[in-house]
Write a structure and sequence with these properties.
This protein has one domain (2-220): Tetracycline Repressor, domain 2 (Orthogonal Bundle), CATH 1.10.357.10. The termini are far apart. It is an all-alpha fold. 28% of the residues are buried. The protein contains twelve helices and no strands. It is elongated. Helices cover 67% and strands 0% of the residues. The chain has helices at residues 2-7, 19-22, 26-42, 50-57, 61-67, 71-96, 101-117, 123-134, 141-144, 170-194, 197-213, 218-228.
């Protein structure tokens, strides 16, 4: 899906709905977006049906193309919207956990994962997990460019406590963030496969512990550093 990846750079907004879409009454606009989220959550990207979205949203076929160029542009818009929600959640998590990045990711995992199972949970987060489940190559796309210059999530950097990490350069911090994002998004997808939040959480905690402790023994780490020195 190369068009999607191009439009998900997040550094520059490459596509947006038309002004016609933004000028719709809020109720009609939200009904369309609910229909779109449901369809992308139902099947992988390649199988998404614009006709199904049109029928569920109860709009004329021609109206879709007055709003979006194609389904790639629509998915890009939906994921950007999800990303903004996650930005806000991550800011809350980092403040709540006093800058501890791993605990902040666990906070987000708990919030999004519990919403997936709760009848009163956030419908958008449930759809996001389902979209990840159906499109495994998109797992960490929402997070990967999070702390690139010029992106809103660059604002997270000052909130992160670097003192807990062995490596704390900007480049290291970016890589740590991407690793945690990939692990977290995969763990959220696991929630939908097992339908067991508790088991998925235990597995996720084990992954975080492995990352936190490191995989090498202290002796091997010292030997490896000496050999590379």
């Amino acid at each position: 899906m190369p068009i999607i990846y191009d439009s998900l750079s997040y550094k520059v907004v490459t596509c947006l709905p038309t002004t016609t879409f933004f000028n719709l009454p809020e109720e009609k606009r939200e009904k369309f977006l609910r229909a779109a989220r449901a369809e992308f959550a139902r099947v992988p990207y390649a199988d998404v049906s614009i006709n199904r979205i049109i029928r569920a949203a109860e709009i004329p076929r021609g109206s879709f193309y007055m709003y979006f160029k194609d389904k790639s542009e629509l998915l890009s818009f939906l994921l950007r919207d999800h990303r903004r929600r996650i930005e806000d959640l991550m800011k809350t998590a980092l403040k709540e956990k006093r800058g501890n990045l791993m605990e902040a990711f666990l906070f987000c995992f708990d919030q999004i994962g519990q919403d997936y199972f709760s009848p009163r949970g956030d419908e958008e987060f449930r759809a996001l997990i389902a979209i990840f489940r159906n499109n495994t190559d998109l797992h960490s796309k929402i997070f990967e460019s999070s702390i690139e210059p010029g992106t809103p999530l660059e604002e997270l950097v000052p909130l992160i406590d670097r003192s807990v990490f062995k490596f704390c350069s900007d480049a290291d911090l970016k890589d740590i963030f991407i690793i945690l994002a990939g692990v977290t998004s995969s763990a959220l997808c696991n929630v939908t496969k097992t339908l067991n939040f508790s088991a998925a959480r235990v597995h996720y905690l084990n992954l975080l512990n492995i990352l936190g402790r490191g995989m090498y023994t202290p002796a091997y780490s010292t030997e490896k550093e000496s050999n590379h020195g």
